[in-house]
Request: fold
Amino acid sequence: MTYFGAIETGGTRCSCAIGDDKGNIIKKEVYPTLKPEITMPKIFKFFIHEHAKITLKAIGIACFGPLDLHKESPTYGSITTTPKTSWQHFNIVQAVKTAIRVPIAFDTDVNGAALGEQRWGAAEGIDTFIYITVGTGIGVGAMINNHLMHGLIHPEMGHILIPRHSSDNFESICPYHKNCLEGLASGPAIEKRWDIKEATNLANDHKAWDIEAYYLGVAIANWSLTLSPKKVIIGGGILNKKSLIDKIRKECQKILNGYLKHRVILDEIEDYIVLPKRMGESGLLGALALAEKAKEV
Amino acid sequence: MTYFGAIETGGTRCSCAIGDDKGNIIKKEVYPTLKPEITMPKIFKFFIHEHAKITLKAIGIACFGPLDLHKESPTYGSITTTPKTSWQHFNIVQAVKTAIRVPIAFDTDVNGAALGEQRWGAAEGIDTFIYITVGTGIGVGAMINNHLMHGLIHPEMGHILIPRHSSDNFESICPYHKNCLEGLASGPAIEKRWDIKEATNLANDHKAWDIEAYYLGVAIANWSLTLSPKKVIIGGGILNKKSLIDKIRKECQKILNGYLKHRVILDEIEDYIVLPKRMGESGLLGALALAEKAKEV
Reply:
C-alpha cells in the first residue's frame, strides 16, 4: 500500500490527514486557522510524527486562494492577496517542503474538491464537470478534459456578474462588485440580507430560498453555457439546507428555457445538478488525490 | 508541401479553400448559404476540381452550430437544432466525406476561428484563451490547456445572462432569454434598439457604443473570472467599428474593479483584449488548421 499526506486549508479550519491510494483516510486532525506561525507548526508536527511510523510518498495541499500556481514563478506555492492578512504572501508549499521533505502538490481548495469528487465521489469517470461550494464565499473548481483549469491566474467564478432578482434590493457584500454572485448569494450575504445569524436556520418556505435558488440557478446556467460541463456538483455549508438543491434545479431549467437541448438538462436535471458524494470531505480527499500526482520538484 | 481543404460555413456565406501547412490560402471560393442541396454541390465541385490537380490530405470544416461533435454518436457530424430549417439535422461531415473521400475534421465556427488565431494569428504560443465574435450572433470559442473546449454539447457563451445597463430598457431579441448577451448586444439587437439598418453606421459618439461596450465588458469580465484566459480575442462585424475595442477594454477594467490582480489586466489591457490578427479569415484558417489534425475515421 502507498500512503500520502493531505492538507486542506480553509477560512476557519485546516485539516491534515494520512490516506492511502484507495481514498481511505487513516488518521486526521483539524486545527483552527490562526496565523501561519501558530497553525503550520501543528500541521508539521502531525506529519513528522506520522511520517516516523508511515512513509509518505508525497503531500497534497488544497488551499484557499488566491494562489501563485505558476511553477516557473519565484513565488510559486504562496497565497497571494487574501484578505486574511497574516497569510498574505505566505509560501505554504515551501514551508511544508522544508519541514517534511517529500514532494508537494498544490492547488486551490475548490480544484482540490473537484479532483476529490472525480477520484472517489460524484464525478467518477467524468472528464468535464464543475464543483461549486456555497458558504462563507462562493468558489468553483473546474475539470476540463480531465485537466483542472488554471489559466492566467485561476478561475474566480464566485465573482461573475449576474442580473438581480426582481424583488431584491439588497446591497452586495462584495467590496469589489455590486452585482456579483458572491456578494448577493454567499452565506454572509443571506445572513446580512435577512438579519439572521445562521442562514440555514431560515424556514424552508422563507422567500430567502427563492432568491438564493434564482441566483445560483443563473450562475449554473451561465457556467453551463460557458463550460458545457457534463455534471454540476454543488456543496458547501448553505447546501445543508436540504430543500435548496431542488429549487436550484428548477430555477436553472427555467432560466435556460430549453435552449441547451440535451437530455440531462431537459429531462434528468437531478442527475445533472447534484450534491457532492463526499460532502464535507471532498477537499481533503482532493488533497490526497493531488498528492498522488505530485512529482519531485 | 502538404495541402489541405478548408470549409467555413456561416449564416450568410460559405467559404471553401485549399491551403498549405504554413497557412497560405492557395485558392478560395465563397458561395451564399442557401439550402444545403444548392450550396453543398458547389463546394463539392470546387474540391473535386482542385483535388484532381492537388492531392488533399484532409478537409477541415468550421461550421455554424449547434453541432453533434460526439464521435461515438450515430449523428456525429450533423448540424442539430439551428433556426436555419433547411440545415437542421444535415450531416455535413458525412456529405463531404462521401463526395471527396479524404479524412474530415469538424468543429464549431468559433472553435475553428480560435484555432486559426492560435496557429497563425493573435494567440500564437498561448495555450489558454478565448475568441469572441460579435455579429449576427455572439459566439465564443475557447482553447483551454491547448484543447478546444467541447464538454456536454459545446459552449454557447453568447447566451450568458448579464445585468442590464442602467439606462437600457430595450427588449432582448433572443427568443429564449430576456437578459442574455446575444439578445442585448448582437448586431441585430443594436440595429433594432436604435432603428438603424447597419449598426456600424452609428456615429462614434452615439450612446449605443457606451451600452455595447458595457455589455461586452461585463461578458469579458465574466469569462475572465470563469475561464482565466491568457488572452481575449474579439472580432466579428461589429468590431469593424474601430473606436469600440478601447471602450470595451475600459468597461471591462472598470467592472472587474481591480479584483483580478494580474499585470495584463491591471496595466496592459490593450495586450489582453485584442482584435484578431487574421480578422475576417480566422475561421477559414481555423478550418485549415483543423484539417491538419484530421485522422482517418
